[in-house]
Amino acid sequence: MVTLTAPDTNSHATAAQETFLVDLADSPVRALNQELHDAAGGQSWTVTNPGGKHSLAVGINADVNVTVNGHAGYYAAGMHQKGEVIINGNAGVGLAENIMSGKVHVKGDASQSAAATGHGGLVVIDGNAGARCGISMKGVDIVVGGNIGHMSAFMAQAGRLVVCGDAGEALGDSIYEARIYVKGTVASLGADCIEKPMATEHLSELAGLLAAAGRADNPADFKRYGSARNLYHFSVHNSTSY
Amino acid sequence: MCGIAALQLRNPLLHPQMGSMLSSMMCQIVDRGPDSAGLAVYNTPGLVSEGTSTLSLLGKEHGKALADIQSSLDALLPPDAAASARIVGDTTLVSGAVATDLLVKAVSETLPGSTIIGRGEHVAVMKSVGHPMEIAAEHGLEAMAGSQGLSHTRMATESAVTAGGSHPFSVADDLCLVHNGSFSNHATVRRDLKREGVVFDSDNDTEVGARYVASRLQQGDTLEEALVNLGKVLDGFYTLVVTTADSMAVVRDPIACKPAIIAETDDYVAMASEYRALAALPGIENARIFEPEPGKVYTWSL
Amino acid sequence: MTITSLPQETPAALPAQHTEELGLRESATFDRATIADIQRAAATGVYDIRGWGAKRKVPHFDDLLFLGASMSRYPLEGYREKCDTDVILGGRHASRPLHLQTPVTIAGMSFGALSANAKEALGRGASEVGTSTTTGDGGMTPEERGQSKHLVYQYLPSRYGMNPDDLRKADAIEIVLGQGAKPGGGGMLLGQKITERVAGMRTLPVGIDQRSASRHPDWTGPDDLEIKIGELREITDWKTPIYVKIGASRPYYDTALAVKAGADVVVVDGMQGGTAATQQVFIENVGIPTVAAIPQAVQALQELGVHRKVQLIVSGGIRTGADVAKAMALGADAVAIGTAALIALGDNDPRYAAEYAALGSAAGFYDDFQDGRDPAGITTQDPELSSRLDPVAGGRRLANYLRVLTMEAQTIARACGKSHLHNLEPEDLVALTIEASAMARVPLAGTNWIPGAK
Predict the structure, then answer these.
(1) Domain ranges (residues) in chain B
(2) Which of A228, B5, C197, C414 could form a disulfide with A194 if both were Cys (CB 3.0 to 4.6 A apart)?
C-alpha cells in the first residue's frame, strides 16, 4: 500500500483525511478488504488495476469512500453497509449484492443480479444492467441509466427500481411490494406484475431517486409497475402462474 | 462447469500474437475449471496447413514410434498423401494431403484404440488432465500464431475427469464446441442421435451438443440455424462457443445463468466467462464490451 | 396432511378389526391414505403441503448392524476406558473452526417455521452439551444467538433476514443448495405463520404466503459458487468456516463439486430429512435415502484426498445413538438432527391427543407444520400456543436427548474397540437386507457379498 499525498499537508491532518492508494496489480484483494474492514470513518481509498477481480471492497462497515478505477469482477461492494463505493468502469455479477445501506455507483455497465437481495442503500448504474437486476430486492433503491435484462425485480419484496432505458422480458415476476419505474419500453411483464397509475407521491418519490442518482430525467416520462397481489394467497385459479 | 476464453483475430497483423493473447485470457479462468483443459487453434503454422487434413489424437504414447506410424500411414494412403505424424505436448498430430475421412480410416487402422479429438484442414485440438496453464505451456500455446483460438478449463460435473471428457469437442471438420453449464436432457438427445447413426466417444453432455450441431450442419443448417435448433432440442443451462474454419458463435440458454462477456474491436472479437480474462487484451479500454443476451445467437465470420 | 378442508361429516374409518371380520381387503395400491389424498385433491384443487420428512419406508440405518468385538478384536471397558466424541469442523480454510463436544448437531430450522421459544430451546439444549445449532430461512434472532454457544448461519436462496452483521456474528456459515426433503425445490410458508415479527424479519407483507426461491439469486453452479465462497470469506476475513449443504440426489458429484468450490464442510441431507412446509409429492418422491447417500459422498471425499479434512455432516432420519454411530462408521464426521430434536422438545406429545384430534390428526401423526396451529407450541407463531413451550424445560429435554444419543454411540464404539467415535469404519457394519447392503456398501450379514461391488 502506498500513501498518496494527503489532501491537506497541514501537519495536524488526521488519518481520517488521507487517501490511500491500492494498486491491485501488485497487492492482493485480501489486503484491500482487510484495510477497509479495519478502516475508520472519513478515510478514502483509490483502487487501481482492478482487472475484473472478484469481491472488491466487500463487507464495508465504516463511513469510507472507495474509488475503483477500472472494471470489477463478481460481487463488487457486496453486503455494503456504509460510505460510498464508486466504480469507474463495469461491474461483474452480483454488484452490491445484499447491500444494507450507503451508496454504490457504477459508471459503466453492471452484469446480472445487480443489487440482488439488497436491503437498503442506493445503487446507481449509469450504463446498462444485465438479467435479474434487483432480484429479491428487500428495500434497496436502484437507479439504472440504461437498460435492464430479463427477470429483473423477480420476487422483489421492497425498495424502488428506476430504469431510464428499456426493461427486458418478465419484469417484476412474482413481485411483492417493490416499486418499479421504467422510462422506456418493457419487453414483457412477469406474473402478477402490472402497470399502476402515477400519483403525485410517485412522481415526487421518483424525482428524489433521480436526483440522488444525479440524473436529469423527467419523472413524468416514466411508468410505474408493481404487484397485482393476486399471488399473495395460494389459489387453484392461479396454478399456471406458480 | 467451467471457464471459457475464445478469440477471433480480424486483423492479420495480430495473428502472430494469437497464442500469447489466448494464454493471457486462459490464465484468468483457471479457477473456474482446475481439473483439465483443452485448446483449439486455427491456422497455426507448424500444426496445420492449407490443402492438408490434420487429425489431433489424444496423448503422445500410442505404443508405436512416430516413424512406424508414418510408414504405416504411407502404406495405407495414396502415394502423394505425404503423411506425417508429430507430437505437440500431450497431443499427436497426424496430417496428410487427403480427405479427412480417408485419413481417419488410415489412423484407425494404424492406431486402433486411439481417440481423435480434432479434425480438419484448419484446426488443431489439444487436451489433457491437470492444471490448465501447465497444459497450455506443455503444448507451447504462448508462441502459437493463428486466426482463432478457443480454450476451456473444466470442473467436471457428472462425467469423469479425463482428457477425453475435456472440451473442446471437435466432431466434424474444423468444428469445435465448448460449454459452460449442464444439459438436463442430453441422454434423450444422445439416444435420438445414436438412432440416426451418430457414434459417441464419451458420456459427456457437451459431446451431445457438439454432435447435434455437427448433425445439423451436415443437414444444411448455417451455424446460426444449428444453434437456434439446439436451443429447441437441448434443455438446461449453457453458455456455448462454437468455432468453424472461419467463424465463431456464442449462445446462452434463455435463462442465462452461466456468465459470458464479449469484447469487440476492429482487430478482434474476444469472449470469456469473466471480464478478468479480457482485461489484458490490447486495446481493451476502447473495445465494445457487452454480455450476450439470453437465447440469442451471435456469430462473427473472418 | 391436511384433511380439515374435507367435509366434516366424513365418517371415521371402520376399525381395522371390523374390516377384517367382514373379509374386506384393502388395496395395496389404493390404500386408505392414498384414497384420502385423492379425495383431498379433488375437493381442494391444491396439492398437499405439509411438514416432516418422507413417510414411506426406505432402506435405513435399521437395516445395518454392528460387529461387536469378541475374540478377534477387543472391546473397551464401558464407563471406564475413554471413548472421545469431540469433533473439529471447518479447519480446511477457516482460521476459527468449530470444536464441538459431541458430533450430534442441530439442523437448520427457521424462526418463522418454529416459534421463538422453540428456537431458544434448541439453542439452550445444544449449548448445554457443547454442540451447534443452525438458523434457517428468515435470519438470526437475538434469542437464538444469545442462547447458542455455536451458531451456524444459513445462507439461503431467499436471503430473508440476511445481513452482514449477523454473518460476522456467526460461528459458521452454511450455504444451502437444497435439503433432503426437496432437492431442487423452493419453499412455501403459508400466510398463517407470517406474523408481524416474521414478516418484518423477511420484509414481507403480514399474512401472505411466502414463496422461497429454489436457486440462489446471484450464482449458479460450482464455478460461480467458488467465487461466492470467496466473497463470504473476504467479508468474514477468512475466520468463519463455510459449509455447503446439499439435498441427497447425486451426492457423489455434488460433494466433489462442493469441495472443488472451496467448502470447509459438506452437509448431506437424505430424503428422510424434515421440512417445515413442502409439497407432499416432493417429500415422498425426490431424493435418495440417507444410507444410500453417505457412501457416495465419502467416496468423493476419499478420491479427492480430503476425507476427514473436509468434514461430512449427515442428516435425514437420525433418531438414536446407533444411527449416529452407523452414520459415522459409514464415513460421516458428524450428524445433524431436526425432526428428532423437535420430538425431544415435545412435538407430537400424546398429552395433546385431544387437540391433535380436533385438528383431524393424532399424536405421532401431526405433520401440518405449515398451518401454525401446533398444539405443542413448536411449529407455530401463535402466542398462546407458543407460550406452551418453556424454552428452559425444552432445552433441558433436548440436552438430555443429545446426551443419550452421544452415550449410545459411545457404547457401540467401545464395543467395537474404538477410543474415538471417528475410528468407526464401514468394516464394523453388516447389512440385514440386500437393498441396504447395496446402498450402504457393506456386506450382507454373514457373507462377503456386497451387491454391485466390483
Answers:
(1) 2-43+144-301, 49-121
(2) A228
